[in-house]
Amino acid sequence: MKKLSLISLGILASLQFMDAQVISSKKWTDLFSYNNVLAMKEDNGKIIAATENGLFYYTVATGEVTKLSKANGLHDISITAFDYNPQTKVGVIGYANGSLDIITPQEIKYVVDIPIATGYSGSKSVNHISITGDQAVVSVGYGLSVFNLKKLEFGDSAFFMNGGVYEASNEATIFGNKVYSVTNSGLKSHEMNITFPVFSTWTTEIPGSFKHIDAEPSSMIFSSATSAFIYNNGTGTPLPAAFGNIKDIVLTASNIVVTDSRIYTFGLNGVSLNAVSLGEDCNTAITVNGKIYGGTILSGIKDEGSSTFKPSGPYANSAYKLNLYDNNQILVSSGSRLNRFNQPAINPKKPGFYYFNGSEWLRPSFFSTTTSPTNVLDAAFNPADNSEVFFTNYTTTAQGVYKMKYNAGTKDFDFVKRYDLGSPGDFSHRPVGFTTDAQNNLFVSFGFNYGSPSIGIYDRGTDDFIIKKFGLSSEAIQKPVYYENMLWIPIPRTNNFIVYDYKTAGNLSDDSDYILKDSNGFAGNSKGTLSVAFSKSGDAWIGTDSGLRILPNAVAEIKTPDPQVEPIIIEQGGLGEELFRDSQILQVEVDAGDYKWISVDGGGVYYLSSDGQKTIKHFTKENSPLPTNSVTDIKVDKKTGKVYFATFNGVVAYQGDVADVTSNFGDVVVYPNPVVYSNFKGKVTIKGLAEKTNIRIADAAGNVIHSAVARGGYYEWDLNNQKGTRVASGIYFVLMTNEDGSDKATAKIGVVN
């Protein structure tokens, strides 16, 4: 038997799918949550579980857990439906945007052309998928469609109408020669391939509001919210249990499983067998070798002994900001803001923040027990005591900075203190983000602090914050950035930018602040500044609501009478054009080679040369594992070159080529090598270079066929010679020296055309 696993799916990165776009590679990893299990199927002792952003596979006998997501084969996130056929080894995933992934042991195909009813303007989300043989019935908000898994095309579709409006197929399945669908107005059926699309020819077998349905070759079950039935020639025989809110029903060749607040099992004749509670809410459940496994909302797969099984991942997928620390530690905050300053609807799951300690993900139990609303925009370690974590709660009733202490024994965080810093119930002084300086001082930014954006400076002696107000009226604020003993602070609601020279932290008598405005060169149509990062030469790269601006030699320039920010002008078709004109620049990050990562709201992430003149890479949700095209935070681990991207739909990481760049060479690596044209048609990457590297590439006869100067620690060769034509097959020698010739390196590249 060929198993559906990451081993058999490993070839998928090189295949072309229906959308002709390969979006995953070995350079990408996901940091998704696999807690919320939506559906499960079993195949020969392996449970396949569908979660919000991916599948995972749990082998019961060995305990092995593997995963499949957009980082290594899938084409989207926000999974809403899943089914799998153990006989054909084919699975189908349905997404919130109405698309499908068809998974076979050989490939994954992306289907985007699901039929849509004319005039329908509601949700395109896939409600349910049921596979029978080579047919998959796909239920949506306007009816259902049948997808042929052999031909990989849609067959019949039926658009349901009830009182002149479209009616959803909640779930549907094939039983015998008919398709059965449960809707809010009844259990409906239709013979296949006979005037199928005409809704008036569908039979309402049993009127009522029904939610779930499942079938095996010899029997079928269906349910409302509070009752489950065995189907019998147009009637339903109720199962003997008092249900409260049925989440799912599953029919196998040996039993019936109903998931409610408890998990009930019945024989195929309806006789009650068992009822167990797993101690938490489940979306679904199945039995394997007579043992119950629940698909939980918060803990992955859970068995009757309360053991849980899932891939490592955070509590939830919502992410806003992240902070990296030594020993591979990560803090991820889950909050959000509307228009970068308004309080959004509170996430009822209260995810709070997630902590990766280098080996596992943890989440404070505080967020599950507190009755107060939480909207955590940032979380940071106390630089003077790494057992303490501060977080900002950006709400209108429980706002404030909170402090927790890590308890290694319980692997939990104990609540220590809330710093309200204002009168009770006052929705001003909303804390946003943290930064620290070289002296281990902790700073936090406050928006609307009694009519002014402010900075709070943590005073360890008094265990309180000293407040510095900037005197700007009724403004929001972003997370500050520390650079050269000053805080650089974007202001997102009006076109201002603050630089705070605090000199001595906590002593407000000797500080200075500088404010950049429209007159300093920001675009007149910009509504605020959003982000800032610093190049190796000390230039401030400022992201605004309407483009990118550079403050050259920022520390010196900000202190001049009239500092001026400048756009980057690039040449397009012989004409000068402003880089990212009118774009919202959500985040700017600089890697070890002085290359720039730029997040554009709705436009994905750009990787630019050090001067911004060249786009090296452009990642979007369409061509990469990015969950969305609006990346709210970017962090680079400069030791490893790994780049982390935070989005409201999850965190992914990309293994960049630039790490620990110095004036000398590191470990020089060439890949791919050898270069076989039939397998790879891109550029050859050489990494581990010095900050400035002189490169000469020679053929076996010693003729120099290519030369270049590389900056930033790596170089990409397009396999062309000096004349611009591709080199012949053979061995090529790469001769490299650093800027002053004090360090040298060599490499070989094999080329097979």
From TrEMBL:
The question of whether Secreted is a record keyword is answered with no
Signal peptide range equals: 1-19
Q: Tell me the domain of life.
A: Bacteria
Regions annotated as coiled coil? none
Q: Which residues form the PorZ N-terminal beta-propeller domain?
A: 49-195
Q: Which UniProt keywords apply?
A: Signal
InterPro entries cross-referenced by the UniProt entry: PorZ_N (IPR048954), WD40/YVTN_repeat-like_dom_sf (IPR015943), WD40_repeat_dom_sf (IPR036322)
Q: Name one Pfam family in it.
A: PorZ_N_b_propeller
Q: What is this protein called?
A: PorZ N-terminal beta-propeller domain-containing protein
Q: What is the lineage of its organism?
A: Bacteria, Pseudomonadati, Bacteroidota, Flavobacteriia, Flavobacteriales
